[in-house]
Amino acid sequence: MLGLDTAIVEHKLLLIPNAILVQQQLRRMKLEVAIKIKEWKASFLAVVEYLQWVANIVLVPKKDGKVQMRVDYKDLNKASPKDNFPLPHIDLLVDNIAQHSCYSFMNGFSEYNQIRMASEDKEKTTFITTWGPFCYKVMPLKNVRATYQRAMVTLFHDMMHKEVEVYVDDMIAKSKTPRQHIDDLRKLFKRLRKYRLRLNPAKCTFGVGMGKLLGFIVNERGIKLDSDKAKAIWNMPTLKIETEVRGFLGRVNYIA
Description:
Layout: H1 31-44, E1 45-47, E2 55-61, E3 67-71, H2 74-78, H3 90-97, E4 102-107, E5 127-129, E6 132-136, H4 144-155, E7 164-167, E8 170-175, H5 178-195, E9 205-208, E10 210-213, E11 216-219, E12 222-225, H6 227-234, H7 242-255
Parallel strand pairs: 2-5
Antiparallel strand pairs: 1-6, 2-3, 4-8, 4-9, 5-6, 7-8, 10-11, 11-12
């Protein structure tokens, strides 16, 4: 994958002063995991010769019963300061999108894997496998949302709050008329093509009068809560401990 033009953004991995370097030891690895890593190598991994930070592969269960492979970057994340580049306020974002007659909802393909790691920081992402040590050529860890949002703001700086709104890897084109929408999409796709940002066709919808976004439904008349979001709150089990209460209040506050 070629990836987003590095003139727009690279993911830099800064470390706090006097960070203690950690090299994890290789853990036992299932055969299917080792095979999957070989597939990864072909697209966005590089072989590492001189080890710095070293992490391990971990398996994370998904809601559908499958497992997802991730890298245990807890040590590296602790040593990396938080990137405070702001994400949009969701209420303002949704307000800006509503009351248009034509929408297109788009999502970036492979999300964060489109953004390249800065050359000097690649080897910090090293993880160990039965095939040897590898590092990422694309951004895999802490601060990725901030980096992606920064890239989108740079890419669409003159279109945001006019023809386009962006929230991390979600892009929404909005227009008052179908004819204007076609012109807006031409402008947007010209920008995407120039800087090599790829979309995921399975997660894109074009030229519609309404759509779901971040738990809300937007259309020409305004905004309403997505019924699936309300149903999830309604069907929550009885709250028993403090963390569950906090989670409930967080959900309610999100849609308030």
